[in-house]
Amino acid sequence: MEMASATSVFAPGLSIIGDIEATSDIRIEGDICGNVVTKKKVIVGVSGKVKGDIHASEICVMGEVLGDLYIQGLARFTAEATMKGTVCSEKIGIEAGADVELTVSKFNKGGATERSAKSQKGNDPNTPRRPVEELMKMD
C-alpha cells in the first residue's frame, strides 16, 4: 500500500454532517454522519463514531461504525470496536471483545460487489453512497 503524504484528523468534539472525500489517510476521533471516501487508510479511533459508508484501501476500527465498509485490503476491528453493517473487504480481522453485527463479503478487485452496484443511484459503481438524509435516520 502506498503511504499517504499526510493524515486528515477529525478530533474529538468535532461533529460533521456531510460526505468526506480525501486523498490522504483519515483518522476519525469525532462524530461523522456521512460517507467517507479515500484511496488510503481510515482509522476510526476509540472516541470516533461514523454513521455512513466508508470506502478505503484499509481500515482499523476502534470506535463505532454504523454503515457499510468497502475496503480493498484489510478491515481490522479491535476489542473496543462496535460495528453494524456490511463489510466488503479482501481480508478481515476481528479481535476478541469486538461488538460486531456484520454481513461479510469478499472485495471484488474488478469493481463493486453485485449488492453495492445495485444500491447506488447513478454514482460511479465503485463508490456507491447513501444520501446523508438517509444516514441521519439510521439507529
TrEMBL record:
Any Pfam family matching the protein: Bactofilin
Name listed for the protein in its UniProt record: Protein CcmA, bactofilin family
InterPro entries recorded: BacA/B
Any coiled-coil regions, as ranges: none
Organism in which the protein naturally occurs: Cyclobacterium xiamenense
Protein family according to the UniProt entry: Belongs to the bactofilin family.
Ranges annotated as biased composition (Basic and acidic residues): 130-139
Chain spans, region Disordered: 110-139
